[in-house]
Amino acid sequence: WTLMGNRACIKTAAAAWASGFLNAALHTANTFSIPLCQGNTVDQFFCEIPQILKFSCSDSYLRQAALIVVSACLAFGCFVFTVLSYMQIFTAVLRIPSEQGRHKAFSMCLPHLTVVSLFISTGLFAYLKPPSLSLPALDLVVAVLYSVVP
């Protein structure tokens, strides 16, 4: 039996690509539209949005708040879809009659679930931590954990 047909698979992939492109386009357009005036040395190994915003000389609070709301909606939608997908996967795996088959299926799913959990938790920490916790070394470690390790 098939849990997900070709049409659903194509729609899911298209939604993932579209939401990722929309999020990237919004952040790129916003980044290129803010005036930067406080140097050009980024304390990261790549240009993270919070690091770039430290260089801004204008008060872009409303623009940033709107981007955060849009990004949060996209991220929440992806999170809900991921949780629902894993619920279906685990339900299907639990229906496998042999214990060896269930063990093999879970051994395939759990590493992926671990990587997804690491990505989501470190990404949330990186973007939602209070500014008082913003230490360059901690920011770098968290950025590596959510961008390179997964």
TrEMBL record:
Pfam families tied to this protein: 7tm_4
Keywords, in A-Z order: Cell membrane, G-protein coupled receptor, Membrane, Olfaction, Receptor, Sensory transduction, Transducer, Transmembrane, Transmembrane helix
Full protein name: Olfactory receptor
Subcellular localization: Cell membrane
Main subcellular location of this protein, as a coarse class: membrane
Gene behind the chain: OR
The keyword Transmembrane appears for this protein: yes
UniProt membrane topology term: Multi-pass membrane protein
Any GO MF annotation of the entry: olfactory receptor activity
PANTHER family, sorted: OLFACTORY RECEPTOR
One cellular component (GO) term of this entry: plasma membrane
Parts of the chain that traverse the membrane: 65-84, 105-127
